[in-house]
Amino acid sequence: MKNKKVILIFTVLAAVVLINSCKKEPEETPDEPYVLDYGTFPEPQIAGDNPLTREGVKLGRMLFYEKMLSRTNTQSCASCHMQQFAFNDTAKFSLGVKNLPGKRNAMSVFNMAWNTNAFFWDGRAQLLRHQSLKPVQDPLEMDETLENIVAKLQASSTYRQQFRRAFGTSTIDTLLISKALEQFMNSIVSNKSKYDDYLAGRATLTPEEERGRFLFFTEYNPAFPAASGADCQHCHGGANFENDKYMNNGIDDDASVSDIGREKVTGLAGDKAKFKVPSLRNVGLTAPYMHDGRFRTLEEVVDHYNLVQNSATLDPSFQQQLPNGGLQLSAADKAALVAFLHTLTDQQLTTNPAYSSPF
After folding, report:
1. C-alpha to C-alpha distance for 304 and 250, rounded to whole angstroms
2. Do 204 and 307 share a domain, yes or no?
3. What does the alpha-carbon distance between residue 85 and residue 289 come to, in Å, rounded to a whole number?
4. Domain range holding 286?
5. Cα-Cα end-to-end distance for the chain
6. What is the pLDDT of residues 191-211, one digit of tens each?
7. Which of 45, 123, 165, 183 would staple 60 via disulfide (CB 3.0–4.6 Å)?
């Protein structure tokens, strides 16, 4: 009888061990979609294999501010993409964990959901998820390996739980990390500037801002100087004030080009010195300007566009201005353009808690 009891106990224990070994991860209730408030913007084309969800965006936000993604555990994505500066950096070249400068000025991270032509100044990353991991691995930036960030995050019960909530698994890998970061960056929307209020009839532009608006959206026409504009909208048009193109905007002549830009990616000579056209939203917060941060102020930027430098790949829209000595803007016109550009600042973006550090 005693032996039977012992056998029964061992049988029960064995069954418990077997059941526990076969247990799957706890099932999560289906995650709810994250709803973008994009106002009058066109509906964005979010990747079908990575729709925005509440838990996915939450995880991406955590990772965006997570310093474990760097080799020294001292820097995060947000170190060079600061919310108060429209997710940009105030340095000409951001400093990485080795205190070494990068090679190009940091680009802003907002309205990424409306980006349709790859990422970085030269477009070397086809998808936002691809872009998200390159700074992690760059020796001049976060200088960490993908294997190490997976190991660090996997060791955290907080992250294991959040990955399970977001993606249904607590087994962390680089694809899920990049998808989470992609979701958070796609959730950052900037569409609440004074200019947006003006379009909606909630604000009035000053006479100087209105003059700047006219110059910005009116084509260059040397035959009628009084009616001629600066034709800024040719490159910075649409809801996001950009055109999803790579262009040579005349900051260097052929002899002065030191960064070949898009040509390094495509191998095409016609792409030499062409760089991604960035959004002008929040441009008042994102100094310094251009891919190399050479201009410290908007006044310097406007001065540049008043008379660009010629080169083999200069965009045709600038070529037509050269024979006439450029745009020939007056000092008042330049000031008006700068005033208008400041109406594109979205102060709510800089303080929105949905985009701030969760830690």
Report:
1. 8
2. yes
3. 13
4. 194-343
5. 60
6. 999 999 999 999 999 999 999
7. 183
Provide the whole-model pTM: 0.91
d(CA 333, CA 231): 13
Residue type, 30: P
How far, in whole angstroms, is CA 214 from its chain's centroid?
Answer: 28
Decide if 289 is inside a domain: yes
Q: Do residues 275 and 288 both lie within one domain?
A: yes
Q: Mean pLDDT lowest for which of 212-226, 290-304, 330-344?
A: 212-226
Residues 185 and 200 in one domain: no
- 334 shares its domain with 198: yes
CB 31 within 8 A of CB 53: yes
Number of domains observed in the structure of the chain = 2
pLDDT tens digit string along 251-281?
A: 999 999 999 999 999 999 999 999 999 999 9
H-helix segments, 117-256? 128-137, 146-154, 157-167, 174-187, 194-199, 207-217
| Sign of the torsion angle spanned by Cα atoms 270, 275, 280, 281 | positive
Kindly indicate the confidence band of residue 27, based on its pLDDT and cuts at 50, 70 and 90: low
Distance CA 173, CA 146 (A): 9
210 and 322 part of one domain: yes
- Single out the residue of 317, 229, 212, 121 nearest to residue 308, CA to CA: 317
Q: Which of 175, 190, 205 is the last residue of a domain?
A: 190
- CA 288 distance to own-chain centroid: 16
